[in-house]
User: What shape does this take?
Amino acid sequence: EAGVTQFPSHSVIEKGQTVTLRCDPISGHDNLYWYRRVMGKEIKFLLHFVKESKQDESGMPNNRFLAERTGGTYSTLKVQPAELEDSGVYFCASSQGGTGINYGYTFGSGTRLTVV
Amino acid sequence: AQSVTQLGSHVSVSEGALVLLRCNYSSSVPPYLFWYVQYPNQGLQLLLKYTSAATLVKGINGFEAEFKKSETSFHLTKPSAHMSDAAEYFCAVSDPRGSQGNLIFGKGTKLSVKP
Assistant: This one.
C-alpha cells in the first residue's frame, strides 16, 4: 500500500509569490489533515477534510491559505501571497473511517517551505 | 484547552542506556495519547498510542509508554538505546469526545545516541 505522498518535498519562493502544496492520501482514506510546523515550534493543526468537505478549518492562520480537496482524493494547500512567517514544514496525514483516532493517522514526509 | 509539554528539547544517551522522554499533558477528560517519531528526511511515524485500554502501552522498536492519570504523564521509555533510535520524538494528545480527530503536539524532543 502506498503511503501518504506530498510534493514538492522542498520549495523556496520569494515573499509575495504563490505556492501550491499537494497531498495524495492513502487510497480509500476519507479523512485528510493538514498540519504545519514553524521552526522551533509545535506541529499545529490546520484543517481536516472528510472526503471533499471541510470538517474543521479552525487552524488555518488567515485567508492567504486556501485548501481544496476536489473529488475527495488528493488535496492542495495554496498560499497566496506567501509571507516570511509562512516558512515551515507542512505535513499531510490521512486516516480511514471515523475520526482516525482509533485507527491512527499516516503522515506524509512533509513539504519544507522557505519564503525568502 | 488541551496542551502537551515535552521536557527537554534535546536528550542525549549512550548506546545501550535507558531512554526516557518525558511528556505531560493537560486535559479536562482522559485523553487519547500518542508518541510519534520522525527520522531524518522522513514523515511522522506512529510509535504507540493510548486509547483508554491498558495503561502500559507497547509500541514498535522496543518502545513503551505508561499512562499515569494522577501525574498527567505519558513518558516514553526504551530499556536500551540503539544508534538507529536517533530521531525527533513528538508526544500528542486528542480529545476523545471530539469529532474532528485533530491532534495537539508537544514541541518535540531530539534524541541523540552516542556510541
Observations:
- The CA atoms of residues 24 and 57 of chain B lie 16 Å apart.
- The two ends of chain B are 41 Å apart (CA to CA).
- Chain B has a mean pLDDT of 90.
